[in-house]
C-alpha cells in the first residue's frame, strides 16, 4: 500500500518543488534589484512562446537527453558516471573524424556513420574507467572525473596541433562538408509546408534523442541485459548468486553509458556547429547528472527534465541577452531547481503524504 | 635536477596542496559521518568570495576568514537540511550547491563591486602574508636541513600551518575522542548510534558543520592566502580533486595528507616543466597539464585498489519508511 | 543603435572583452547615445544573437573574438543592410569590417622592455589556455627579448587545458613563483583572470610583471613594468562613432596605426629608464618602417626563436 | 522470584497501555496492553509481521508510539528516544544486531556510554568491567576483536554485554536464538535464568515454542498487530499456542514417509577450498546424495557450510582456490571460476542462506524476483525482449500455490515479511523441479505456519525423486527433515548419522568438533 496516490508522487511533488524553486529565484532577482515578473516573462516568451524559442529549447534539451540517459544507464548498474562531459567531448572527436576524413555524398549516409563514430568514441572513453572499476576496484567517480580533464587536454592538443586548419586562429577543426549538414527541424517544417523555428539549431537529432529514450526504456525494463544491469545495481551478492558477472555488466553498462554521452555530439557538433570546437559540450555532461536524478532515472522523466533544463537554458539565455540581468542568474535558478526538485523533494513530499493519509483516514472512517 | 630545484618544487607543492588538504579533511569529516559531499567545490568557492569581500570591506583578513567560514557553513547547512533532515539525495544536493555557489558569487560580486564577479585586489592586512619561522635565515647555511627548513617549512601563511596541524588533530579527534567514535559509528551504522542513545541527526549535523568550517578555511586560503582577491570560478576544480584525494586516502587523515601532497607535487612538477623534454620526444604542455590526472588514474589502478567507503555513506538514515 | 556582443569570457574578463566595454562606454559618455550589449552564454547562441540583433535593426554590430568568425561568415549575407564589425578575426564579406591586431608587434616591444629591465637575463611568459592566439603574444615577446639580449632565456608556461585556465589566479601565482625560482625577474602574463594572480604574485615577489590587453599598470603601481595594450576600446569607439558608415574590409591595428602599444604612464614611469624608452622608440620605428620584421606565429604555426 | 518487598517493588516492571503504532498505511500495533512482572522471563510469540519487533522497539524508544502509555516500575514515563529507555534501565538486543562491524568489541560496548570526552578513560574502565561481566555471566569475548571477525553467537554476546554494561534491569531479546546453535542457545538460557534470579526482568521474542515452554514464566501471543492472549506458561501447551498464533491448527511435526533413495545425484570427492585471504575453509569434503533423499548438514555457522553451498551453486568467492571433484548425475562439474548460470541449467536449484542479501533483489517486485536466476530461461524470452507477461503469469501461479501473502505480484519484495520473502525464494527454486536442491537455513526467522509449509514442499520434492542438500543450524529442523545427517566442523565432515539413530547430544558433540567415540563411529559408518 502506498502512502499517497502515484500521480501525487510523480506530478504534484515535483510541481510544487518547482514552484518553490522559482519563488526563491524571484527573491534572488529582487535582491539584485531586478523585476522577477519581467524576468519570468522574458524567459517564458523567449523559450516557450515562439517556435523560435522552442527551436533552441529543443536543441538544448536534446543534448541533455543524451547525457541524462548516459548517467541513468550507469546509475541503474550502481555506477555514478561523472564522465559524461569527457565522453561527449570525445564523441565529438569521433564525429569529426568520420565526417572530415571520409567522403559523404548525403547526410542520410553520413548520419548513421557519424552516430557510430560518436557512440564508439564515447564508449571507448568510458571503457578504461569501467574496466578499472570492474577489475581493479578503482572508484569510478574519481576515474571519470580524471578522464574529463584528460579529454579536455587531448582535445586541446588535437584541435590546436592536428585538426586546426593552417592559419586559423580558432582552436577548431575545419567545417564539415555541406553534404553532411543535418536537416534542421525548421527545414523539415518547411518541407511540410509551414514555417517553424527559422534559424534555430534544433535538428533531426531531436528525434534520435526520442528514439534513444525509447530504446533505453526497452533496454532497461524489457531486455535480459537491462534486468541484469538493474539486478547488479541493486545488489551485487544477489547478482553473483544469480550467475550474473559483475565485471561483464559493469563494462557493458559503462560502454552503453559512454556511447549515449558520445551520441550527444550528433546534436552539437554535427547538427549545430558543423565543426569541432573546443569545449563544445559546455557542461551538458554535468547537467546530465541533474537531469537523470531529477528524472528519477526513468527515460520519460529524463526527457521531461531535459526539457525543463532546455527551457532554463534558453529562457536564461534570453534573459542574459536582452536584459541587464547577469547570466549567472540562470546558474542560480538551475541550482535552485536541482536543489528543490532533486534533493529537497521530501520537504514537499512529507507534508503531502501526511495530507493524503489524513484524507484517507477521513474517507475510510 | 638539483637540490634547490627539488626544494622549490616541494615548496610550491606545499602551497598548492593546502586548499586540497583542507577540503579533503572537510570531506573526511562529512563522509565519515555518512554524508557524501561533492559540494566541496561550491563551498570553497562561496568561502573564497565571502572571505575576500569581507576582508576587502573591513581591511582585516581575520574577519575575512570568519566570513569565509560563515559562507561555507551556510551552504553546509543547506546540504545538511537536504541530506539529513529531508533525507534527500546527497549527490544531487552537492551538485546543486556547486551550481549555486558558482552563480551566487558572481551575482553578488557584480551587485556589490561591479567588477564582473571579481573583488578588488586585497592589500596589506586584508590578506594573509607568509611568515618566516624563527631562525629560518640563520639556519639556511646548515647543510640539507637548513635549506629544507628555510625553503619548504618556513615562509607560508598561517593557514598552511593550520592545515598541516589539522591532520594530527583530525586523527586524534577521530580515534581518540568520544566525538570521533560516534562520528565514525554514525557513518558505518547509524542505527547502532541511535540505539545507543545518541542522536544521529545531531552527529551528522556536527560533521557537516565541521566540513563547512574547513571548506571555509580552504576557500579563504584561496582568496586571501595564496592569492589576493576573488575571481569567479577560482576554485578551478580543486573541490573535485580533493574528493579524489579523499577516496584515494580511503577516508583516513594521514593518507589524506599524502594524497593531497601527491596532487600538489604533480601540479608543481608540471608547472616547473611545462614542456618536458625526454630527449627523444617532447611532451606538449597540454599533457603536462593533464599529468596529475593521468598519474592519479595510474596510481589508483596500480597501487591503491578497492576503496571501501563508510558503509552507511550516501544513504539517509531512515527508521520508518 | 549600435550593438556590442561579448564573447564567452564575459564583459569583465579583465581583458579584451572588458576593453571593448570601456570603448563602448566612452562612446556613450561622449555622445549620450545608447547601445545594446549582449553576453554569450553558449556556443549555440552566437547565431541567435547576431540574427536577433540584426533583425531588431542594430547597426553596426560589433563582436569580440575569433569564435564569431565562422557564424558571421554564414549569416552576414542574410543582412546586407547591416554592418558587422568583428575583432580578432578576418571575415571577408561586403558588409563586414574585420579588425585584427598585431599582437606580435606590441608583444615585441614588451619583450624589448622586459629584456632591458631584467637583471638576471631570464624573463617569463605565462599564457592562459594553450591556443594559437596566445602563441602570437608569446612569439612576439620572445622575439623582442632575443633581439635585445640574444642570450636571454624566456620561460614559458600555459595555465591549463580547460576554460578554467582563464580564471585560476592561484595557479597563475604559482606559475609565477616557479618562474621566479628559475631566475625570471620580469614576467609577461597573457591569461585573462589568471593574469591577475600573476601580477599579484609578481608584486609580492618584488619582481616586474607586464600586463596585457588593457592598461594594467595601475594594478600594482611601480611593479608593473608596462602593459601590452590592444586598442580594442578605440576600435569599438570608432566603430560606434562611424555608425552605419563603418568601412567594410580588413583593418589592421598595428603599431603604426596605434592599434597596439606598450602603456607608459605615471605608474610605471620610475621603471622606464631613458635607455629603455629609447630602445622601445627605436624598435617601434624599425617595425613601422619595416626594418624589423616581427614574425606572426599564425602564419606558419612556428616561432623563429626557441 | 526475589524476596523483595515494598509497594514499589510489587509494581510490574513494565506495563504497556493501549500502545498503537502505524507505519504509513500499515497498522503495526493496535491498542496493545502488556504487563510484565518484575523478575520474570516473559515470552512473546506471533507470526511474521505480527508487530512484535515494533512493540519492543517502542519500549526501547527506537520508534515513537502514536498513542498509548508506558509505565516502568509503576511510574509513567515518556520514552522519546533510546537514551530515555537506557536511563530507565531498559536494554535491548535487536533481531538485526546494531553493531558497528569494523569497530572492536570494546568500542561497540562504550559507544554512547562513554565516561567523558576522551576515549582513553572509558576504554580502560570498560575493559575492566567487561572482564568482570564476562566472568560473572560466562560471556567471554575478546574485547579487541573486530565485530566482523566474530561469529553471530559472539556478536550476540556483545549485544547482551552492551545492555549489561549500561546496567539494564530490563532486557529485551528479539529472536535471539535464530542464529544460535543448540549449545549456544542452552548457554544463553542459562544466562537468562541467572539474570532473572538476580531480579532482572527479561522479554524474549521467539518463533520456537520449545523455547517458550522451556524458559519463560509467562507468554503473550500477538496476531496482526493485536495482543490476542497472555497466559502463564505452565498453564498452556505448544499446540494451543500455535493455534492462538496462527488462528488455525498447525502440525508441529514433519510428516514424511521413509526415503527410497535411488541413484547418486551428487558426488563430492575431497573438495578443498582456500579463500582469498589464504584461510583453508574446506579441508576435504566427501559427500554423496542420492535421488529421493534429503541429506542434512548440521553444524555451527561458519564451519564451511556457506562455502560448500556457494561452490556447489557455482559461485565460489572471488580469489578462492579450489581442488577436488564434483560430479552431478555422473557428469563432472568444472571447478574453475564462477558459473551459477550453468549450474542452474544443469539442474541445481539453490535457496541461499541469506534471502535478503542473495536470494532476492529487495527492490524488485515479487514477479521479477520469481524469475531471478532463471531470467534467461527460454520460456521467459520473446525474441530480443524478455517476455514479462509470461514471467508475471508464472509468478502469479507460484504466489498462489505457495500462499504468499499478500498475493500481490507487483509489490516490492522488501515489503513482504521475512516468511513470505522466503516463500518466494522457495517457490522459485522448488517449482523448477531441480535434480538437486541446495537449501540453506530454509526457515530462519520464519514463523511456524510458514515453516510447516516450507517443510512440506521440501519433502514433496524428495518424494518426487529429487536430491536435497539441507544446511541448517536448527538441529530440530535437521533431525526432523533429513534422511541422513552429516555434521560439519572446521571445513570437514565430522561424521554421518541417521536421524533415528542419533540424539541432539550426540550431534552437538560432533558439531563442537569432539571426535566420536569408537562405538559412535561404527554406528555412523
Ligand atoms: N520501520 C518500519 N517501517 C514501516 N513499516 C514497518 C516497519 N517495521 C515494521 N513495519 C511493519 O509493521 C508490521 C509489524 O512488523 P514487525 O517487524 O514488528 O513484526 P514482527 O512481529 O517482529 O515480525 P517477525 O516475526 O518477522 O520479526 C509489519 O507488517 C511491517 O509491515
Ligand atoms: N524499515 C522497514 N521499512 C519497511 N518495512 C519494514 C521495515 N522493517 C521491516 N519491515 C517489514 O516488516 C515485515 C517484517 O520484517 P522483519 O524485518 O521483522 O522480517 P523478518 O520476518 O524478521 O525476517 P528476518 O528474520 O529474516 O529478518 C516485512 O514486511 C518487512 O518488509
Ligand atoms: Mg521482528
Ligand atoms: Mg523475523
Compile the SSE list and pairings:
The complex is a heterotetramer of chains A (365), B (321), C (306) and D (525).
Chain A: H1 6-31, H2 36-47, H3 51-76, H4 84-101, H5 107-136, H6 140-163, H7 185-191, H8 205-222, H9 224-234, H10 236-241, H11 246-273, H12 284-294, H13 299-322, H14 328-343, H15 345-364
Helix pairs in contact in A: 1-14, 1-15, 2-13, 3-8, 3-11, 3-12, 3-13, 4-5, 4-6, 4-11, 4-12, 5-6, 5-11, 8-9, 8-13, 9-11, 12-13, 13-14
Chain B: H1 3-32, H2 40-58, H3 61-85, H4 90-113, H5 136-139, H6 145-153, H7 158-176, H8 178-188, H9 190-195, H10 200-226, H11 238-248, H12 253-272, E1 276-277, E2 282-283, H13 285-304
Antiparallel strand pairs in B: 1-2
Helix pairs in contact in B: 1-6, 1-7, 1-10, 1-11, 1-12, 2-3, 2-4, 2-10, 2-11, 3-4, 3-10, 7-8, 7-12, 8-10, 11-12, 12-13
Chain C: E1 3-6, H1 16-31, E2 36-39, H2 45-55, E3 61-64, H3 69-75, E4 84-87, E5 96-101, H4 103-117, E6 122-129, H5 132-148, E7 153-160, H6 169-181, E8 186-190, H7 193-204, E9 208-213, E10 224-230, H8 232-242, E11 249-253, E12 260-262, H9 274-289, H10 297-300
Parallel strand pairs in C: 1-2, 1-3, 3-4, 4-5, 5-11, 6-7, 6-8, 8-9, 9-10
Antiparallel strand pairs in C: 10-12
Helix pairs in contact in C: 1-8, 4-5, 4-9, 6-7
The complex binds adenosine-5'-triphosphate (2 copies) and magnesium ion (MG) (2 copies).
One magnesium ion (MG) binds next to loops of chain D.
What does this structure look like?
The complex is a heterotetramer of chains A (365), B (321), C (306) and D (525). Chain A is built from 15 helices and no strands. Chain A is 76% helix and 0% strand. Chain A folds into two domains: 1-34 and 324-365, no CATH class; 57-322, ABC transporter involved in vitamin B12 uptake, BtuC, CATH 1.10.3470. Chain A has helices at residues 6-31, 36-47, 51-76, 84-101, 107-136, 140-163, 185-191, 205-222, 224-234, 236-241, 246-273, 284-294, 299-322, 328-343, 345-364. Chain B is an all-alpha fold and 321 residues long. Chain C has helices at residues 16-31, 45-55, 69-75, 103-117, 132-148, 169-181, 193-204, 232-242, 274-289, 297-300, and strands at residues 3-6, 36-39, 61-64, 84-87, 96-101, 122-129, 153-160, 186-190, 208-213, 224-230, 249-253, 260-262. In chain C, strand 6, helix 5 and strand 7 form a beta-alpha-beta unit. In chain C, helix 4 packs across helix 5 (132-148). Chain D is built from 19 helices and 22 strands. Chain D is globular. The N and C termini of chain D lie far apart (49 Å). Mean pLDDT of chain D is 89; it is low at 1-8 and 518-525. Chains in contact: A-B, A-C, A-D, B-C, B-D. Chain A binds chain D through residues 1-3, 218, 222-224, 227-228, 230-231, 234-235, 237-238, 240-243, 245, 353, 357, 360, and chain D through 24-26, 313-315, 338-344, 350, 352, 357-364, 368, 372-373, 375-376, 381, 384-386, 388. The complex binds adenosine-5'-triphosphate (2 copies) and magnesium ion (MG) (2 copies). One magnesium ion is lined by residues 52-53, 95, 174 of chain D.
Amino acid at each position: 500500500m502506498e502512502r499517497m496516490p502515484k500521480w501525487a508522487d510523480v506530478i504534484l511533488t515535483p510541481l510544487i518543488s518547482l514552484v518553490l524553486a522559482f519563488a526563491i529565484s524571484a527573491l534572488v532577482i529582487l535582491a539584485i534589484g531586478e523585476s522577477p515578473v519581467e524576468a519570468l516573462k522574458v524567459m517564458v516568451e523567449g523559450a516557450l512562446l515562439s517556435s523560435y524559442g522552442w527551436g533552441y529549447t529543443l536543441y538544448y534539451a536534446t543534448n541533455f537527453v543524451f547525457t541524462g540517459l548516459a548517467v541513468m544507464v550507469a546509475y541503474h548498474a550502481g555506477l555514478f558516471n561523472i564522465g559524461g562531459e569527457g565522453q561527449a567531448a570525445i564523441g565529438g572527436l569521433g564525429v569529426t573524424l568520420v565526417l572530415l576524413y571520409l567522403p559523404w555524398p548525403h547526410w542520410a549516409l553520413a548520419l548513421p556513420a557519424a552516430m557510430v563514430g560518436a557512440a564508439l568514441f564515447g564508449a571507448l572513453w568510458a571503457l578504461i574507467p569501467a574496466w578499472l572499476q570492474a577489475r581493479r576496484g578503482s572508484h569510478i567517480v574519481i576515474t571519470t572525473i580524471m578522464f574529463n580533464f584528460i579529454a579536455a587536454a587531448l582535445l586541446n592538443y588535437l584541435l590546436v596541433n592536428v585538426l586546426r586548419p593552417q592559419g586559423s586562429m580558432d582552436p577548431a577543426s575545419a567545417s564539415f562538408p555541406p553534404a553532411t549538414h543535418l536537416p534542421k527541424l525548421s527545414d523539415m517544417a518547411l518541407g511540410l509546408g509551414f514555417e517553424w523555428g527559422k534559424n534555430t539549431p534544433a535538428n533531426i537529432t531531436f528525434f534520435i534523442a526520442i528514439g534513444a529514450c525509447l530504446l533505453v526504456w526497452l533496454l532497461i525494463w524489457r531486455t535480459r541485459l537491462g534486468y541484469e544491469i538493474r539486478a547488479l545495481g541493486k545488489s551485487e551478492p544477489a547478482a553473483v548468486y544469480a550467475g550474473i558477472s559483475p565485471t561483464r555488466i559493469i563494462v557493458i553498462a559503462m560502454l552503453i553509458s559512454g556511447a549515449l554521452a558520445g551520441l550527444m555530439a550528433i546534436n552539437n557538433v554535427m547538427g549545430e556547429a558543423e565543426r569541432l570546437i573546443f569545449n563544445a559540450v559546455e557542461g551538458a555532461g554535468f547537467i546530465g547528472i541533474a537531469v537523470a536524478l531529477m528524472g528519477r532515472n526513468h527515460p520519460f522523466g529524463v526527457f521531461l527534465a531535459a526539457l525543463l533544463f532546455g527551457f532554463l537554458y534558453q529562457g536564461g539565455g534570453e534573459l542574459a541577452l536582452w536584459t541587464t540581468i547577469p547570466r549567472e542568474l540562470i546558474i542560480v535558478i538551475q541550482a535552485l531547481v536541482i536543489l528543490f526538485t532533486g534533493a529537497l523533494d521530501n520537504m514537499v513530499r512529507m507534508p503531502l503524504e501526511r495530507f493524503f493519509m489524513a484524507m484517507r483516514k477521513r474517507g475510510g472512517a | 635536477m638539483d637540490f634547490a630545484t627539488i626544494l622549490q618544487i616541494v615548496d610550491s607543492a606545499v602551497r598548492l596542496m593546502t586548499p586540497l588538504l583542507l577540503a579533503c579533511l572537510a570531506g573526511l569529516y562529512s563522509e565519515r559521518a555518512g554524508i557524501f559531499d561533492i559540494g566541496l567545490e561550491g563551498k570553497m568557492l562561496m568561502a573564497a568570495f565571502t572571505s575576500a569581500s569581507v576582508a576587502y570591506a573591513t581591511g582585516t583578513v581575520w574577519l575575512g576568514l570568519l566570513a569565509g567560514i560563515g559562507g561555507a557553513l551556510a551552504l553546509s547547512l543547506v546540504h545538511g537540511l537536504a541530506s539529513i533532515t529531508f533525507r534527500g539525495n546527497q549527490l544531487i544536493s552537492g551538485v546543486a550547491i556547486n551550481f549555486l555557489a558558482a552563480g551566487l558569487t558572481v551575482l553578488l560580486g557584480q551587485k556589490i563591486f561591479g567588477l564582473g564577479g571579481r573583488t578588488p585586489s586585497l592589500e596589506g592586512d586584508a590578506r594573509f602574508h607568509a611568515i618566516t619561522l624563527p631562525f629560518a635565515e640563520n639556519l639556511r647555511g646548515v647543510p640539507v636541513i637548513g635549506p629544507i627548513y628555510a625553503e619548504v617549512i618556513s615562509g607560508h601563511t598561517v593557514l598552511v600551518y593550520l592545515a598541516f596541524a589539522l591532520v594530527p588533530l583530525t586523527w586524534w579527534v577521530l580515534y581518540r575522542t568520544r566525538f570521533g567514535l560516534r562520528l565514525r559509528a554514525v557513518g558505518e551504522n547509524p542505527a547502532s548510534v541511535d540505539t545507543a542513545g545518541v542522536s544521529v541527526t545531531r552527529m551528522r549535523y556536527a560533521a557537516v558543520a565541521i566540513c563547512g568550517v574547513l571548506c571555509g578555511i580552504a576557500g579563504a586560503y584561496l582568496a586571501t592566502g595564496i592569492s589576493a582577491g576573488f575571481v569567479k570560478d577560482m576554485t578551478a576544480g580543486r573541490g573535485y580533486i580533493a574528493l579524489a584525494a579523499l577516496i584515494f586516502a580511503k577516508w583516513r587523515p594521514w593518507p589524506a595528507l599524502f594524497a593531497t601532497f601527491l596532487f600538489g607535487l604533480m601540479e608543481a612538477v608540471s608547472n616547473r616543466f611545462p614542456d618536458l623534454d625526454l630527449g627523444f620526444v617532447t611532451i606538449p604542455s597540454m599533457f603536462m597539464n593533464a599529468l596529475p590526472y593521468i598519474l592519479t588514474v595510474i596510481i589508483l589502478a596500480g597501487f591503491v585498489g578497492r576503496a571501501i567507503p563508510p558503509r552507511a555513506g550516501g544513504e539517509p538514515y531512515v527508521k520508518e519508511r | 543603435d549600435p550593438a556590442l556582443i561579448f564573447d564567452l569570457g564575459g564583459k569583465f574578463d579583465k581583458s579584451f572583452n572588458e576593453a571593448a566595454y570601456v570603448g563602448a562606454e566612452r562612446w556613450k559618455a561622449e555622445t549620450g547615445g545608447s547601445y545594446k550589449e549582449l553576453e554569450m552564454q553558449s556556443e549555440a547562441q552566437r547565431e541567435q544573437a547576431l540574427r536577433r540583433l540584426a533583425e531588431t535593426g542594430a547597426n553596426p554590430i560589433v563582436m569580440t573574438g575569433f569564435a564569431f568568425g565562422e557564424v558571421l561568415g554564414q549569416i552576414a549575407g542574410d543582412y546586407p543592410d547591416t554592418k558587422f564589425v568583428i575583432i580578432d578575426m578576418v571575415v571577408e564579406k561586403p558588409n563586414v569590417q574585420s579588425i585584427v591586431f598585431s599582437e606580435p608587434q606590441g608583444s615585441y616591444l614588451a619583450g624589448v622592455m622586459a629584456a632591458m629591465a631584467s637583471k638576471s637575463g631570464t624573463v617569463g611568459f605565462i599564457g592562459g589556455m594553450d591556443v594559437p592566439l596566445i602563441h602570437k603574444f608569446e612569439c612576439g615577446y620572445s622575439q623582442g627579448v632575443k633581439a635585445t639580449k640574444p642570450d636571454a632565456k624566456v620561460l614559458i608556461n600555459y595555465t591549463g587545458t580547460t576554460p578554467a585556465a582563464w580564471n585560476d589566479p592561484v595557479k597563475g601565482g604559482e606559475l609565477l613563483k616557479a618562474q621566479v625560482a628559475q631566475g625570471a625577474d620580469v614576467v609577461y602574463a597573457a591569461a585573462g583572470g589568471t593574469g591577475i594572480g600573476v601580477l599579484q604574485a609578481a608584486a609580492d615577489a618584488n619582481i616586474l610583471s607586464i600586463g596585457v590587453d588593457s592598461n594594467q599598470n595601475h594594478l600594482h603601481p611601480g611593479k608593473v613594468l608596462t602593459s601590452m595594450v590592444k586598442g580594442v576600446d578605440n576600435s569599438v569607439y570608432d566603430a560606434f562613432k562611424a555608425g552605419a558608415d563603418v568601412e567594410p574590409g580588413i583593418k589592421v591595428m598595428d603599431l603604426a596605426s596605434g592599434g597596439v602599444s606598450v602603456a607608459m604612464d605615471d605608474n610605471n614611469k620610475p621603471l622606464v629608464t631613458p635607455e629603455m624608452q629609447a630602445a622601445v622608440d627605436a624598435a617601434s620605428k624599425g617595425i613601422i618602417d619595416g626594418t624589423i620584421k616581427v614574425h606572426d606565429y599564425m602564419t606558419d604555426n612556428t616561432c623563429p626563436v626557441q | 522470584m526475589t524476596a523483595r518487598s515494598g509497594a514499589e517493588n510489587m509494581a510490574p516492571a513494565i506495563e504497556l497501555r493501549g500502545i498503537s503504532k502505524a507505519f504509513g498505511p500499515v497498522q503495526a500495533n493496535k491498542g496493545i496492553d502488556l504487563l510484565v512482572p518484575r523478575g520474570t522471563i516473559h515470552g512473546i510469540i506471533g507470526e511474521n509481521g505480527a508487530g512484535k519487533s515494533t512493540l519492543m522497539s517502542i519500549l526501547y524508544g527506537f520508534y515513537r508510539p502514536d498513542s498509548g502509555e508506558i509505565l516502568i516500575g509503576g511510574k509513567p514515563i515518556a520514552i522519546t528516544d533510546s537514551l530515555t529507555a537506557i536511563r530507565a534501565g531498559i536494554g535491548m538486543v535487536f533481531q538485526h544486531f546494531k553493531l558497528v562491524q569494523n569497530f572492536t568489541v570494546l568500542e561497540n560496548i562504550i559507544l554512547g556510554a562513554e565516561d567523558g570526552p576522551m576515549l582513553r578513560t572509558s576504554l580502560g574502565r570498560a575493559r575492566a568491567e567487561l572482564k568482570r561481566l564476562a566472568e560473572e555471566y560466562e560471556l567471554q569475548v575478546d574485547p579487541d576483536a573486530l565485530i566482523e571477525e566474530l561469529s553471530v553467537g559472539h556478536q550476540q554476546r556483545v549485544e547482551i554485554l552492551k545492555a549489561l554494561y549500561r546496567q539494564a534491569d530490563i532486557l529485551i531479546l528479539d529472536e535471539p536464538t535464530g542464529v544460535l546453535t543448540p549449545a549456544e542457545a542452552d548457554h544463553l538460557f542459562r544466562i537468562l535464568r541467572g539474570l532473572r534470579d538476580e531480579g532482572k526482568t527479561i522479554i524474549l521474542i521467539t518463533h520456537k515454542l520449545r523455547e517458550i515452554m522451556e524458559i519463560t514464566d509467562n507468554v503473550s501471543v500477538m496476531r496482526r498487530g493485536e495482543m490476542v492472549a497472555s497466559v502463564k506458561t505452565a498453564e498452556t501447551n505448544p499446540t494451543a499456542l500455535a493455534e492462538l498464533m496462527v488462528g488455525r491448527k498447525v502440525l508441529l511435526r514433519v510428516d514424511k514417509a521413509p526415503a527410497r533413495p535411488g541413484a547418486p545425484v551428487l558426488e563430492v570427492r575431497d573438495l578443498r577450498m582456500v579463500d582469498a585471504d589464504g584461510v583453508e575453509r574446506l579441508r576435504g569434503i566427501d559427500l554423496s546424495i542420492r535421488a529421493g533423499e534429503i541429506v542434512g548438514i548440521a553444524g555451527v555457522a561458519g564451519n564451511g557450510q556457506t562455502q560448500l553451498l556457494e561452490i556447489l551453486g557455482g559461485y565460489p568467492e572471488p580469489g578462492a582456490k579450489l581442488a577436488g571433484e564434483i560430479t552431478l548425475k555422473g557428469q563432472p562439474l568444472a571447478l574453475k571460476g564462477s558459473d551459477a548460470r550453468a549450474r542452474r541449467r544443469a539442474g541445481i536449484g539453490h535457496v541461499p542462506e541469506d534471502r535478503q542479501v542473495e536470494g532476492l533483489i529487495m527492490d524488485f517486485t515479487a514477479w521479477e524476483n520469481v524469475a531471478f536466476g532463471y531470467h534467461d530461461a527460454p520460456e521467459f524470452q520473446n525474441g530480443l525482449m524478455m517476455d514479462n507477461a509470461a514471467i508475471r503469469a508464472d509468478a502469479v501461479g507460484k504466489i498462489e500455490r505457495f500462499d504468499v501473502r499478500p498475493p500481490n505480484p507487483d509489490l516490492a519484495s522488501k515489503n513482504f515479511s521475512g516468511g513470505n520473502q522466503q516463500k518466494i525464494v522457495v517457490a522459485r527454486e522448488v517449482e523448477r523441479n531441480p535434480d538437486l536442491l541446495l537449501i540453506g537455513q530454509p526457515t530462519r526467522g520464519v514463523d511456524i505456519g510458514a515453516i510447516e509449509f516450507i517443510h512440506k514442499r521440501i519433502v514433496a520434492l524428495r518424494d518426487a525423486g529429487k536430491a536435497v542438500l539441507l544446511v541448517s543450524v536448527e538441529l530440530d529442523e535437521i533431525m526432523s527433515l533429513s534422511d541422513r545427517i552429516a555434521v560439519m566442523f572446521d571445513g570437514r565432515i565430522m561424521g554421518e548419522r541417521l536421524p533415528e539413530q542419533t540424539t541432539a547430544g550426540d550431534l552437538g558433540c560432533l558439531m563442537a568438533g569432539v571426535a566420536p567415540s569408537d562405538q559412535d563411529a561404527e554406528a555412523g559408518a
